[in-house]
């Protein structure tokens, strides 16, 4: 499933992590990000309308690849899947989520930071992991130190990642892409400044994986 997931991402270096406060923003936001070169987006289940936002993007924005984030349990996993999510992101790894992923075709990107968590995920056959919260947990130097014992495990660091430090992560051999909310800040989403968001997406899409 990792290969299926990676081909879906198709080399996209940054996955926008979105918190949709007004469901009407979802479609124009997804369109702007796709125009800027970031078709794969993660809509987090941190707001009441998140599932509806996923449903609308899945139905109306053909060019987008919409995933669900902040999935904490099996129920949310299946609700997000039913809404049209192409991938599922979770802040951590639990037995319940491992079982949900095993019973589904939809790839799971679960969070793992410590060697023990990474080994848990690895035993479950999960080898593409979210390193979250990346900056707070130790940043690129921490992640770099995981490359040697965990050859074959690839990461998507998120949490405190911005244009300032994204390159440090993308330069690491065990990093495939980064995630972050900086491409869709509230100050631009609220007034619906889709052109500015498209521009931020374009800059992020140019942060090529080294
Ligand atoms: C996530 O769930 O990936 C993070 O909340 C994104 O973190 P950021 O807002 O610091 O980019």
From TrEMBL:
Checking PANTHER family in the record gives:
2-DEHYDRO-3-DEOXY-6-PHOSPHOGALACTONATE ALDOLASE-RELATED, 2-KETO-3-DEOXY-6-PHOSPHOGLUCONATE ALDOLASE
Write the protein's name: 2-dehydro-3-deoxy-phosphogluconate aldolase
Give the residue range of the signal peptide. none
Family recorded in the similarity comment:
Belongs to the KHG/KDPG aldolase family.
Q: Which GO terms describe its molecular function?
A: 2-dehydro-3-deoxy-phosphogluconate aldolase activity
Q: In which pathway does it act?
A: Carbohydrate acid metabolism; 2-dehydro-3-deoxy-D-gluconate degradation; D-glyceraldehyde 3-phosphate and pyruvate from 2-dehydro-3-deoxy-D-gluconate: step 2/2
Sorted keywords for this record are: Carbohydrate metabolism, Lyase, Schiff base
Keyword Nucleus annotated: no
Q: What class of enzyme is it?
A: lyase
Identify the Pfam families for this entry.
Aldolase
Subunit composition and interactions: Homotrimer.
Q: Which domain of life is it from?
A: Bacteria
Write out the catalysed reaction: 2-dehydro-3-deoxy-6-phospho-D-gluconate = D-glyceraldehyde 3-phosphate + pyruvate
E.C. number(s) listed in UniProt: 4.1.2.14
Extract the SUPFAM superfamilies matched here: Aldolase
């Amino acid at each position: 499933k990792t290969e299926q997931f990676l081909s879906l991402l198709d080399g996209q270096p940054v996955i926008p992590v979105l918190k949709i406060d007004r469901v009407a923003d979802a479609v124009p936001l997804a369109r702007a990000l796709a125009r800027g070169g970031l078709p794969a987006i993660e809509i987090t289940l941190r707001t009441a309308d998140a599932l509806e936002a996923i449903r609308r993007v899945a139905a109306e924005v053909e060019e987008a690849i919409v995933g669900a984030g902040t999935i904490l349990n099996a129920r949310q996993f299946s609700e997000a899947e039913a809404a049209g999510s192409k991938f599922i992101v979770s802040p951590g790894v639990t037995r319940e989520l491992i079982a949900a992923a095993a019973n589904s075709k939809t790839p799971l990107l679960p969070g793992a930071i410590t060697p023990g968590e990474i080994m848990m995920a690895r035993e479950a056959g999960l080898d593409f992991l979210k390193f979250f919260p990346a900056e707070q947990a130790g940043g690129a130097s921490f992640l770099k130190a995981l490359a040697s014992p965990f050859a074959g495990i690839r990461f998507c660091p998120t949490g405190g990642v911005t244009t300032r430090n994204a390159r440090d992560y993308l330069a690491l051999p065990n990093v495939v892409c980064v995630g972050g909310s900086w491409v869709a800040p509230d100050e631009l989403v609220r007034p619906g400044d889709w052109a500015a968001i498209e521009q931020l997406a374009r800059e992020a899409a140019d942060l090529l994986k080294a």
